[in-house]
Amino acid sequence: MKNKRNFFVAQKKILKEAGCSDYKESIKLLFSKAFGMSLDQRYNTKDHDNAMLFSAMVTRRAKGEPTSHIVQSRSFWKSDFYIDETVLDPRPESELIIDVTKHLLFDRMKVLDLGCGSGCIGLSLYKENPSISLFLSDISKKALSVTKKNALKLRAECELIHSNLFSNINERFDLIVTNLPYIAKEDFFYLQKEIMLFEPHEALYGGKCGLDVIKRFLSSVSKYLNSNGMFVIEFGKGQDAFLKHELRRFNFKKFSFHRDLSDVNRIVCAKKDT
Ligand SMILES: C[S@@+](CC[C@H](N)C(=O)[O-])C[C@H]1O[C@@H](n2cnc3c(N)ncnc32)[C@H](O)[C@@H]1O
Predict the structure, then answer these.
(1) Which of 93, 142, 180, 221 to mutate to test the pocket of ligand 1 (most atoms within 8 A of CB)?
(2) What number is the average pLDDT over the span 78-84?
(3) Which ligand 1 atom lies nearest to the CA of residue 116?
(4) Which of 71, 95, 127 corresponds to the end of one domain?
(5) Tens digits of per-residue pLDDT, 198-244?
(6) Structural domain count of the chain
(7) What is the dihedral of CA 44, 46, 52, 55, to 10 degrees?
């Protein structure tokens, strides 16, 4: 018993000393993946067959690889999503999109998640109302194969579209949700090591001032919305003034900003007038 305890304490210490800010949460997830049981049950384990695997996972995490990539899973909203290095690791602040839009869903509503990555946003909305007609699009084919895995895992009926913004989209929607890249060049090089090394840069980098992709989205979105259709977009800290300006420029008169848990304006919900 004493050796087992020492082993777990040593693994936890490796993560702590490597500077993993989330080492307590990580060790639990890595343990569950390696042993197929929760950390609370650790002293019930009879054999150490999986100890090597656990230790190897701890080493990867200590080198900066995100826990979600190692365990290939990330909990988002009410589901667990398959995650790998080809998609953005879903961020808790993106759950705000679900929180705001779940009240707007109606039966058979036509919804597009543009830049879907793992599919966490669109598929979470589908779980809130499985009658919606869901479309998920991304510029990355690799990301779309992850979306497909998650759609199958969550038994969601949906259509996947490979598209650069609206280039391959020939429909109109009642709701478009999107979390496009918005990191500016000057901030990009200051990202945490684990983001720089392990997350797809095309999912994060939004051009010189961070707003290149969002600008292109805003200039076309109106054409892809039904009358009274809405879109909801996530953006970066301090980009709200730009969003407000562009919404007015493109004739969106009704819009509301929503703050995240850090009290920062994080998403805007805009309605087409006609
Ligand atoms: C910030 S990630 C968001 C992923 C996912 N929606 C989430 O919230 O976790 C941005 C996603 O947009 C995709 N993307 C980037 N530029 C795009 C474009 N021009 N057209 C469509 N998708 C794009 C990336 O491949 C990536 O999957």
Answers:
(1) 180
(2) 97
(3) 6
(4) 71
(5) 899 999 999 999 999 999 999 999 999 999 999 999 999 999 999 99
(6) 2
(7) 20
